[in-house]
Design goal:
This protein has one helix at 124-129; strands spanning 20-26, 29-36, 61-65, 76-77, 83-84. By secondary structure, the protein is mainly β. The protein has a domain at 1-87. It is elongated and about 80 Å long. The relative contact order is 0.14.
Amino acid sequence: MNFQDDKPIVTAAGTAMPQASWALIENGRVAAVVNTNNHEMHPFGADVPRAVPGSVPLAGRCGLRVTGTIAHTGFLVDRMGNVTPCEGRKDPLSAGESAMRSGPGARTSHIGEPQLDPVEPESPVEAKNQEPHDGETDDSATE
């Protein structure tokens, strides 16, 4: 399995045209990521079906468009098409498990509410003696 990235198409002004990133998914894992100029079809061959987010098969092979995401070889995929690092897990995600809830942030525990110092309201005398801030007018001069 040796898939090559397409050479970017460059405009007359020298700007590279955006490319599409495609992931080959095998049994719930990213097996390969390829950048192509074709935004409609993956480069993995006609025998590999194109998956759409929401119905990504977790068994077998499919091509999934992952443009704009951080997808690397070995990442796990959920049924919605989200990817997450495997973090040492050997099994693919289960059918109901979300990649968004099983990533590194899901393992943090909530220790407690932050303690804030109480703020005392300022008295009207203190407020009157303060200098005006930038952009504020000094209304005391008109009184």
